[in-house]
Amino acid sequence: MEIAILSSAYFGPVQWYQKLNRYDRCLIEQYDHFIKQTYRNRCIIMTTQGPQSLTIPIEKFEDLKCPMKDVKISDHGNWKHLHWNALMSAYGESPFFEFYADDIRPFFEKQWKYLYDFNWEITEKVCELLDVRPHIEPTDEYLAACRHDFRDVIRPKHPLPDEDFHPQPYYQVYGQKYGFVANLSILDLLFNEGNEAIFYL
């Protein structure tokens, strides 16, 4: 059995979901320290202005480092309303936005206290929509690096090499304007390809 380790992710990129689909068992780390500029609290979508990062604000923590499981979501700045409006603006004309909107909208209406719990529920829902059934588990302690450790491989800035990830182009709403942009949020793939999305993982 091949086991992969992943960081928690907010509507993670296509690469992140590819790992869930390809490994026998995936452990989602909840004892690693929260790090800014990662997918833990941000996703990247495609807009009329090009790629845009949507970032969840978090509450300040007392220590210099805080385990991911203890990171709390802040309601500062009405971020849920802003993120949902950004998604509607970016993907409202995409082929499958209306089909999935009722499944995705509740994540921008309900309240979650902890970022890890929020991301976990997102992961479960997206896997359901993709029709993938990965064996995922939260970690019960911090795990040392191993062969299939993707915590530092899948990140928006300075990712480590991933020889197994070869993004396949798919239809994108703004493809004629910007060309194909790889490894955006899984929402980009879902809203543009619908039930065909599984074939790109």
Quick overview of this protein structure:
By secondary structure, the protein is α/β, with parallel strands linked by helices. It has six helices and five strands, in the order βαβββαααβαα. The model has no long low-confidence stretch (mean pLDDT 95).
Q: How are the strands of the biggest sheet laid out side by side?
A: 1-2-5
- Tell me the β content: 5-15%
Radius of gyration based on Cα positions:
16 Å
* Overall number of strands: 5
What profile does the largest beta sheet have?
3 strands, parallel
Distance between the termini: 20 Å
Broad shape: globular
Helix amount, in percent?
25-40%
The helix-strand sequence is EHEEEHHHEHH
What structural class should be given to the helix and strand makeup? alpha/beta
Summed over residues and divided by their number, the pLDDT gives a mean of 95
Separate helix tally = 6
Low-confidence runs of at least 5 consecutive residues: none
Could you describe the 3D structure shown?
It is a single chain. This protein has helices spanning 14-22, 79-91, 97-104, 115-130, 175-178, 186-193; strands at 3-7, 25-29, 42-47, 50-55, 136-138. The strands form two sheets. It has a three-stranded parallel β-sheet with strand order 1-2-5, with helices on one face. The protein has a two-stranded antiparallel sheet with strand order 3-4. The chain is of the alpha/beta class and 201 residues long. It contains six helices and five strands; from the N terminus they run E-H-E-E-E-H-H-H-E-H-H.
